[in-house]
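Quick entry, no commentary yet.
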Amino acid sequence: MRNHSVISEFILLGLSADPQIQALLFVLFAIYLLTLMGNLMLLLVIGFDFHLHIPMYFFLGQLSFLDLCTVPKLLENLLSEKKAISVEGCLAQVFLLFATGGTESCLLSVMAYDRYIAISSPLLYSQVMNRQLCVGLVWGSWGLAFLDALINILVALNLDFCEAQNIHHFCCELPSLYPLSCSDVTVSFTALLCSSVLHFFGNFLLVFFSYVRILSIILSISSTTGRSKAFSTCSSHLTAVIFFYGSGFLSYLMPNSESTQELIFSLQYSVITPMLNPLIYSLKNKEVKSAVKRMLRKCF
């Protein structure tokens, strides 16, 4: 790789200017341990309980594994006096954020399609959502996300960074690097804009139209009990979608103002949403709660 920068590292400032805010953030990120435990619990339950060996929980297991990889290197930045990251490490973090965020976006659209098939064709569900298709959809989700990340990072490697080192953020993201670049960022910004429109908004539209179809099917059910049961099969996924895209839109559509409010939205998108996913799927899902009880009875 060529030496594309005259500086060797960036300084992640984040929200650390105020010591009280820094202490508060450390407590908040310590809650990441709950995220770790929650997602590991879901992975164990899905893996060992044969009642959950169906497509919905196969995708949920992938989502739980993915959420274990989403929190950036902020705990170390909060604890260390010098909150530095090398240029290469920063670009690697950009790639990781792109890949994991893109994969989660794809998985959520795949899970929306899965819920649509479950509600529209319950008798054919196991035939349509066979293991070969499920594995292919997961590989496709990872593949598209990594391709998207690779394209953006290859374009970003052409950026030159001179003198300015301070990143007013707690992790490396492309929009935060643009003000530090002393070269033309038009090509990189265009690639970022195109990938955001095609990848994230594209997946959002797939989720949106899937739920439009799901809603029309639910409303066509005559009995109240039937409508309630049909809606309960997708309520957990819908809640996760709202948190993911809601916090994502607020984080990435806001202007790069370096404000505390902008960083808090990004904090919610990067950490809070992955922490909430296992809670959403365990507290709102009777099958997961029953599986957890069965596993605990076997262990104790």
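second:
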Amino acid sequence: NKCLDVKGNEQVNGTHVQVYDCNGTGAQRWKMSTWSGSTKIQLDGTNYCLDAGSPIGNNVGLKIWQCYDGLPQQQFYITGDHRIAVEGKGQCLDQPNGNDAAGTQTQTYQCTTGNTNQVWTVGFYYV
């Protein structure tokens, strides 16, 4: 299985978010404030959030950045078909060309129904 992962668990602004083999480390533990509606996706135990960059558009690499309330590139929602979309931007988290090789930086790309490069499983962990 692959997970959304902060490269090297390096907690600084601009660190790439990649797909990586699931290993249960802090680099792969994300939290959301809600399951319905707009939410930040925050790296658990930190003040870093998933960030879609600026300007938000196709082929823009995802990264972490210090969390800011209401920052458009940090507002996401989960779609009914399991995509993670940037609020109001028509962009979804995407695996470039479906490449799930460990270390591949994730990106935003136009949300497309049926695009399996954009389908994610959101799971739980217990502490």
